[in-house]
Design a protein that fits this description.
There is one protein chain. By secondary structure, this protein is of the alpha/beta class. It has a single domain, classed as Glycogen Phosphorylase B (Rossmann fold). Helix content is 50%, strand content 15%. β2, α3 and β3 form a beta-alpha-beta unit. The longest helix is centred in the middle third of the chain and has 18 residues.
C-alpha cells in the first residue's frame, strides 16, 4: 500500500511517529511524507520515506491561505493517489479531510492534543470547532 502521512513539520513525524513509519515500512508499505521541509527530511529519507514539500502557513489564520492549502492538498492527493492518508496536525486534519472527500481516498485524522486553537476560548476556538465538525462529519470514528 501507498501511505501518505501529512503533518505541519517533518520533524513531527521523525520525533513522534518514527515507530509507526518503521512498522509500516517493515510490512512493505510505501510511505510518502507531505510536510514543510526542515532538518528531519534527510532522516526520514534514510528510513525509506519519500518526502514531498508542502507549502503552508503553520500558524497563520488567513482563510484565503487556508483555502489555497485545501486546494493544494487536493491536487497532491490526486497526483500521489495514495491508498490511505494519515494526518496528524490541526490544519492538515481539517483542510486535508476536506480535500480528501473529493479524491475518494480514506483519510484518517489523528488528534493528540487540543492545541492553542481549542484553548483560546474565543472566536478562533469556535471557528476551529465548526471546521472540525464539518470536516469529519462523515468519517468513521476509531478509538
Amino acid at each position: 500500500m501507498h501511505i501518505l502521512m501529512t503533518v505541519n513539520a517533518a520533524w513531527n513525524i521523525w520525533n513522534f511517529r518514527r515507530p509507526l513509519v518503521e512498522a509500516l515500512a517493515a510490512d512493505g508499505h510505501r510511505i510518502t511524507v507531505l510536510a514543510p521541509f526542515d532538518d528531519a527530511v534527510p532522516d526520514l529519507e534514510r528510513l525509506g520515506c519519500r518526502v514531498r514539500p508542502l507549502e503552508m502557513s503553520v500558524k497563520g489564520l488567513n482563510p484565503l491561505e487556508d483555502l489555497k492549502l485545501q486546494r493544494r492538498f487536493g491536487r497532491i492527493f490526486r497526483e500521489e493517489r495514495p491508498d490511505a492518508i494519515l494526518s496528524f496536525t490541526i490544519k492538515n486534519n481539517i483542510f486535508g479531510a476536506r480535500a480528501a472527500k473529493s479524491t475518494d481516498v480514506p483519510f484518517l485524522p489523528n488528534v493528540t492534543g487540543l492545541g492553542t486553537a481549542f484553548l483560546s476560548g474565543k472566536l478562533l476556538q469556535t471557528v476551529t470547532e465548526q471546521l472540525y465538525r464539518r470536516s469529519f462529519a462523515d468519517l468513521p470514528v476509531v478509538c
